[in-house]
Amino acid sequence: MKLTLKIWRQGGKFKGELVTYQLDNVSEHMSFLEMLDVLNEELVQKKEEPVVFEHDCREGICGTCSMVINGYPHGPMQGTTACQLHMRHFKDGDTITIEPFRAKSFPVLKDLAVDRAAFDRIIQAGGFVSVNTGQAQDANSIPIEKEQAAEAFDAAACIGCGACVAACPNSSAMLFTSAKVAHLSLMPQGEVEKQRRVQAMVRQMDEEGFGACSNITACEAECPKEISVEYIAKLNRDYFASSLGSETKVK
Amino acid sequence: MSWFSTFLTSSVGRKLVMSLTGLFLIIFLVVHLIGNLQLLFDDGGEKFNLYAKFMTTNPVIKLTSYLLYAGILLHAIQGWLLWRSNANARETKYAVKVTRTVNTNSFASRNMGWLGTIIFIFILIHLYQFWLQMKMGVLEMVTYEDVEVDNLYYVVAQAFQNPLYVVFYVICMVVIAYHLLHGFQSAFQTLGLNHSKYSPLIRTVGRIYAVVVPLAFAFIPVYMYLQG
């Protein structure tokens, strides 16, 4: 299939603009990133600078790939990362616009690569988790209700890719933060520091300059791991309980 | 900063202010509607005028009305501040952007700031036209069984004879309907009340409320205009 690509180029000779490329001989079996690999090989052969984009595992579990495809973070397929999106979902002759995840807190490094260190700092603000070391415990020595474990696991599915921020009209990081707060606070191991953690992580999220949540739910619709905004409601509950109802004060 | 101001200025705390004031205004709308429905009695405005008298003189209602003015201002100012800071969180806009949502109205949820601004302007016009006239004491008086009251009914009935004003009023009610369509369920989500057992009910009640209440408000001027 033949495609017209409009790709955001920024850095080097590009000031930040959409550049149009024609690509012939795209196989429908390629993944979206493989299609970009083909484009980059052509660019290198022409002695042009290849398009910078981030990728790592290419199997949808690392959260490294990050691009907005035709207006959808990770592309139009729901519950799918860009690396797991295949070209069979596009038609011959399509024009595809590819942009980086956009947010003030995710500055563009080059082309489609953005700096998501703000997420790392939110995680760091969460601090340590009291897990006792020493002899391995018997798996059944800490009983956890099945539903509770499932809820924690659904939150833990967050790969921290930043699609929620990219999708949100407010550039809010609330879905990410809520998932990271919930997957620990729902477990007895993570419960010990839960009061301090929720205050510290919300504060860091605000300091990073992300917008506030206005419950649009675009984050849930675009999340490749389909994390529910129910976790944002839970974050709010935990934050109210910790800020207003506990002795914990985060300086 | 004290622990309380830290809480109130956090993104979660600021949203809580929006949620609580929003729910207060949602309850107020019902009270307001009950009053407006008095206009539909074919009694030359007696019931409506007596109701207006009660609402402006009863001390409990008076106290609540100050809470209401504060609530409207707080909701509007906090909303504008959030709108501005949220817009600033993305400097370069997308060339192509599609917003898909789950269980919410995509148009309403993305445009709460614009919808709210229109509603605020409507409220200012609305207050100038009816509330201020009554407060300034420039209305004609009318007597029912030895009780002298302002004839607010006359001003309202006059306003609703202007077809342009009726159209403007109906359009504003559509704007309020969209604002409520997102606002109702959003207020509960912000309070942390999102639960698989209760959320479907909250969403259904919210949708019904967002349609029925503005529709009833809009029906009154249309009916009075057609009655002549």
Automatic annotation (TrEMBL), chain A:
Gene3D superfamilies: 3.10.20.30, Alpha-helical ferredoxin. One of its GO terms (biological process) is tricarboxylic acid cycle. InterPro entries: 2Fe-2S_ferredoxin-like_sf, 2Fe2S_fd_BS, 4Fe4S_Fe-S-bd, 4Fe4S_Fe_S_CS, Beta-grasp_dom_sf, Helical_ferredxn, SDH/FRD_Iron-Sulfur, Succ_DH/fum_Rdtase_Fe-S. The keyword Oxidoreductase applies. This is succinate dehydrogenase. Its cofactor is [4Fe-4S] cluster; [3Fe-4S] cluster; [2Fe-2S] cluster. Belongs to the succinate dehydrogenase/fumarate reductase iron-sulfur protein family. NCBIfam families: dhsB, PRK07570.1. One of its GO terms (molecular function) is 4 iron, 4 sulfur cluster binding. Its EC number is 1.3.5.1. Residues 149-179 form the 4Fe-4S ferredoxin-type domain. Keywords: 2Fe-2S, 3Fe-4S, 4Fe-4S, Iron, Iron-sulfur, Metal-binding, Oxidoreductase, Tricarboxylic acid cycle. Pfam families: Fer2_3, Fer4_8.
Automatic annotation (TrEMBL), chain B:
The chain crosses the membrane at residues 20-41, 61-83, 112-131, 164-184, 205-226. One of its GO terms (cellular component) is membrane. It comes from the Bacteria. Keywords: Membrane, Transmembrane, Transmembrane helix. NCBIfam families: sdhC_b558_fam. This is Succinate dehydrogenase. It comes from Flavilitoribacter nigricans (strain ATCC 23147 / DSM 23189 / NBRC 102662 / NCIMB 1420 / SS-2) (Lewinella nigricans).
